[in-house]
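Bit of a strange request maybe. I'm writing a small parser for structure token strings and I need a real example to test against, not something I typed by hand. Could someone generate the tokens for this chain?
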Amino acid sequence: MAMILLVEDDRIVAAALTRALVDAGHVVRAAAQAVDALRIATEERPDVVILDLGLPDIDGADALRMMRTVSDVPVIVATARRSEVDIINLLNAGADDYVTKPFGAEELLARIRVALRRGDTWAHTNEPIVRGGLVIDRERFRVVRDGEEIRLTPKEFELLTYLAQHPGRVLTHRTILKAVWGPYAVDQPALLRVLIGSLRRKIEDNASAPKWILTEPWVGYRFAEDGVRPR
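Reply from user aminoacidic:
Good idea to test on real output. This should exercise your parser:
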């Protein structure tokens, strides 16, 4: 059972989603406006937020950015926007995942399970990952490179952790998407491409010539074992 914050101003949609979430064993807190959602996220600390972008008081993307200033709770955005540019903007604003309207209850529940799994994994894993000068502290949600702390979004942190757990191994696009975003994301390569680019800009000395996150053309990515770019 988890506490789900459902941010949706359409009463009919909110009622249907609430029923599906409750039937799946979750507790639901509902908000029809961004200001109420931000208050609940701050005071009640939900396990997952489902955020509709079409809110009456504040644009959903702006609400997402504001939520990221007070909480690192996993946020699943519900949107009718389908272009890659829109997806990139949502991920850059701090979304962990998204579902495009219309979507089924089973797809949403599957994405919630992935988001909850991320929280459970971090909660039960204490040992930091050390790869050369890169330290990933899973207990404190911190990444340090050569003694300097690097700020990552929750999804960037999860992706980096997954890659670093498999040093030297080539991971296919589908493998990474399924592990980090769940089975419904295996055909959404934009998710991975955007987050890889963002991670490289933050952890690499030169994002255009990465030494940690290496591209295996047409296959996927490989995390270098020692952070030394191959010649």
